[in-house]
Each structure stands twice: as C-alpha cells, then as structure tokens.
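User: Could you go from structure to sequence for me? I need the amino acid at each position, not a summary. Structure tokens:
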C-alpha cells in the first residue's frame, strides 16, 4: 500500500469519469460502519478534495480496519467509480489512513473560489455603512483583533453542508450582509444597523468552534460550548473592551438585542437556537441566514460551479440531509 500511495497520480474528484479505476489521497468525512440486509458490515463515507466530494462505499469492511480510520481525516484509497441513480459514487477496494504534508493539504482541502482579501474588504466597507457611532466603534474593536480576523478570513462556515471550505465563513457573512443591504430598505422601521452588525456577528463563534488546519472538525470548545453561545460570550467581552479602551457605552438595549440575534439565529431550539427570534431584527437575520445557507446547499448539489464532464442522467440529486429532500437539477428555463 505504501508503494502505491507514493506513486499515485493526483486525480481530482471533479475529473473522475464513470466506470474507471482510481487511486489517490483524499479527505475522509462522516465515516460510518453500516450493515447490509444480510448482516455484512460495510463502510459508507464521503471522499473529497479541493474540487468536490462524492459518496464512497467499501463492501465487506473488516471492523478492525474501520477502527483504524478517522471519522474525519485523510486516507489513501483505490477502487473504481460507479454510476448510481444519476450520481457518481466510489466503490473502494482498499482504504488506509494517511497523514498528508502541508503541501498535499493544498490539494485536499476545498477553498473559496473568490479572493479572500477582496471579500474581507467588502465586509469592511459594509461595516463602514453603519451609522450609529457606538456600533461603528464596536465594529472597529472586532476589526482590530488581528487574530480573530485572520481566523474569520480563513475558517469554513461549516464542517460540511454549506460553505464548507477555506474562506467559507467570510463568503457566507459577506453574502448575508449584501442581502441585508438590499432587503432592509424595504422595511423602513427595521434597525438596519442592528441587522447589518448582527449578521457580521452571527457566525463569528465558528472561528473557535471549528478546526481547519487539517480535516475540518470540531474543537473541544466547539463540542462543549458551540458557536452560538461562543459568539454571545465574545460579544459581551468586546462590549466590555469598547468601554474600557475607548470609553464608549452601547445604548441601553443594544448589547442584549445583539446577543439575542446571535443566540436565536438558528430559529428554533431543535436547530440549535438558544432562543426563538423575538425581535424584528432577529427574525430578519434568521431568515436571511437561511436564504443564503439553504440556497447555497441546493445550488452546490444541483448546479455545482464546476460542471461534471459527463452526464449520468437523473434529474434529482441524492437526498440533501440539511434540506430534507432531493434537489431538482435542471434549470427550469433551459
């Protein structure tokens, strides 16, 4: 296996064709040991690289080999590609854990197609449109935190599902802020500054929830606290810093209202929200966040930026867990 891994030619996921042999290094996600109707154990997982991700299976998976694999990590794998219900899947003959070099990680981790510096400057400009002087000063407190902003620029927005790539958190935040910039004028009685700043804040806790220096995974603090509560704690600390370093105090209800936005932006407790949105601004933030997250999931599944070099037929994707449904692929007007 070591000799094969050393000599493997880099074949990216997006370049795989139906009914061909492959071998190479891949990022492994969501590895699970399942059981067939006949009681035989098999591996089901996702294999990916910087160009995409596909489902993979290894039939008759030895449990002792499964124990050696990370749930989320990196592997050397070989096998064959197989069309299945309009999708490409990988049937594995061999899979082994693999420890990539920093150079190899560049090919294994997906990255935003947009320049990070360009996106960050757009976020900075949108924050500059906030009119309330105390909120503008608080925004500067965040922007002056170089360690936090470096993490914000590079973190994925999720371990999987939406914007799960380097720069994904920044890309998602910019998208929702742009949506708010377009939507808020339609509702003159909404506090635009609160919505705009709340969207900047809403997922910042993911900079501490997620680890992206190898396979995307949760930190210990991410597992124990999570990005929603983490974001609310961070906001409290930054508000304290604003008072001590600049002598600026937020309006009476501002801190609680902004913390409420962070705590409620997932909408419902079953989706992770600590509170149900209970202000016009929190309701709008929740809806805007959903617009970008769910639309991105649907488009990534049905109409990826990099089109497949083949057509396996089938008008629907696999079931998208985060959406609870399959997605119709064709452009309705094409």
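Assistant: Here is the amino acid at each position, in order:
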């Amino acid at each position: 296996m070591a000799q094969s891994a050393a000599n493997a030619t880099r074949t990216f996921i997006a370049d795989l064709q139906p009914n061909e042999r492959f071998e190479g290094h891949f990022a492994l996600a969501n590895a699970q040991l399942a059981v067939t109707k006949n009681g035989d154990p098999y591996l089901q997982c996702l294999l990916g690289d910087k160009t995409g991700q596909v489902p993979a299976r290894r039939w008759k998976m030895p449990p002792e080999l499964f124990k050696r694999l990370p749930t989320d990590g990196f592997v050397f794998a070989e096998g064959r590609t197989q069309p299945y219900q309009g999708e490409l899947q990988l049937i594995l003959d061999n899979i082994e854990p693999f420890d990539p070099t920093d150079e190899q990680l560049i090919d294994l981790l997906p990255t935003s197609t947009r320049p990070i510096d360009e996106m960050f400057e757009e976020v900075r400009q949108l924050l500059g449109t906030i009119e309330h002087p105390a909120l503008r000063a608080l925004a500067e407190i965040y922007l002056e935190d170089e360690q936090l902003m470096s993490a914000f620029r590079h973190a994925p927005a999720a371990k999987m599902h939406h914007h799960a790539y380097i720069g994904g958190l920044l890309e998602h935040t910019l998208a929702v802020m742009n949506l708010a910039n377009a939507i808020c004028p339609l509702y003159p009685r909404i506090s635009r500054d609160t919505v705009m700043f709340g969207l900047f804040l809403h997922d910042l806790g993911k900079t501490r929830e997620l680890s992206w220096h190898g396979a995307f995974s949760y930190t210990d603090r991410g597992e124990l606290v999570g990005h929603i509560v983490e974001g609310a704690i961070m906001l409290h600390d930054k508000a304290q810093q604003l008072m001590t370093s600049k002598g600026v105090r937020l309006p009476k209800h501002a801190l609680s209202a902004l913390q409420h936005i962070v705590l409620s932006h997932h909408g419902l407790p079953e989706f992770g929200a600590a509170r149900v949105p209970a202000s016009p601004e929190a309701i709008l933030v929740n809806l805007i966040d959903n617009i970008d997250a769910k639309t991105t999931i649907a488009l990534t599944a049905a109409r990826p930026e990099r089109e497949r070099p083949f057509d396996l037929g089938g008008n629907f994707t696999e079931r998208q867990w985060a959406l609870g449904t399959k997605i119709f692929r064709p452009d309705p007007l094409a």
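One structural detail worth keeping in mind: Confidence is low (pLDDT under 50) at residues 1-8.
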